[in-house]
């Protein structure tokens, strides 16, 4: 199906122009813009890059093609007497082993070459120690923004709350906001000394201040777009932000990783998001005149994305959705050594699978899967536990049928968490399983189990069976999990202070590699869903 082209909104006759005009009355005392002059501005944006600095095996996306595209757009905009800003909705880290093993250095150096102007801090920026994040900022060379992630000691933003750009005669304030779910999604061990406040409450105070300093306000966020504001078990996202905080002209978003082919207009604010991995570059063109945005046009531009079609012989082949974008040679030259280094370390065969193991986000966060069971079994076996529990947000990819490499395992478990365990009394185990089994479907907290079955009745785990036997009130049970959830990640009970808690020191991906090597070929039927939790 042909992707939608440009979405056109003539804002002069909508609530957006009224909102901007009203807010502009509170704007700079002496605006620099000239009366009746039209100012053309283009906002380019990406989000949720997750380590995809290199094109995939099908030749899709990649930072080299992205550079060619963005360079061409910038040239086009400049020739039309316009100006542009390039923004990111965050989550540069975590997702592809070649990047993860190198602390996303190729990604941030690539963004430096692309001349990003600013990015929002995403929750995955806290998958590493703060020292790594500071090093990444040096590689990037542009502002990392978040007004609501604070240094706990000083109460000031950990990096910068906002940045004001002088764009021709216009002052454009770019404010960063990060989901308050970061407190449970980020690695708790790396969040010590950091305070995370509600981005909406912070914005309610900050936006009126920025209106006194700037003509246009853009919120670059990592909060998620949820249709009609229905965020479920997630923290409130961009729709809730726009509804609660008047005066934001544009939200450049991320986190939920969904493409918005048309802006979602809420309370006079245009909400944008460009899917994930650099698959698209979002482009918003607008005209600012006499204190208001009077016209805008939007599109998501695919970066060498392909679709399947039938050729003349009836064979299924992949073709470009739009014209192929050449890869920029200077970007390729810079990135190639990183890719080669990563490939040499990762393309090591460790086993074979006779079935696909399902870790796709939309599936594993909603139901029990064979991959969730496999990971839980591997953790359980490594530390001689009775039960294994895995949060679905820590499962990031499918494990495909055929040859299994170290790389494919790291794509499934990229976070470098440690397998941990605790010995619980039957009462403690019941309380823990109650909390884990109640995690909401559709969120990363949703639990995958092995070695246990139960019924969740009136919010409490009942009919608990451990490896086919009824729970014994006088027995102690060992339960395995990763140190992320043991530290309270994803809102799980914090058990690191329990006297029986042990961090094994074994990296979760290495534990899965070892299990696959020992049990290859993997038979999917042995890990098929059994309905561990009944509701």
Automatic annotation (TrEMBL):
Keyword check for Hydrolase: yes
Occurrences of domain 5'-Nucleotidase C-terminal (ranges): 350-494
Signal peptide: 1-22
Keywords: Hydrolase, Metal-binding, Nucleotide-binding, Signal
Native source species: Marinomonas primoryensis
A GO MF term: UDP-sugar diphosphatase activity
Top EC class for this record: hydrolase
A matching Pfam family: Metallophos
Family: Belongs to the 5'-nucleotidase family.
Enzyme Commission designation: 3.1.3.5, 3.6.1.45
Protein name per Swiss-Prot or TrEMBL: Bifunctional UDP-sugar hydrolase/5'-nucleotidase UshA
Domain Calcineurin-like phosphoesterase: 42-256
Taxonomic lineage: Bacteria, Pseudomonadati, Pseudomonadota, Gammaproteobacteria, Oceanospirillales
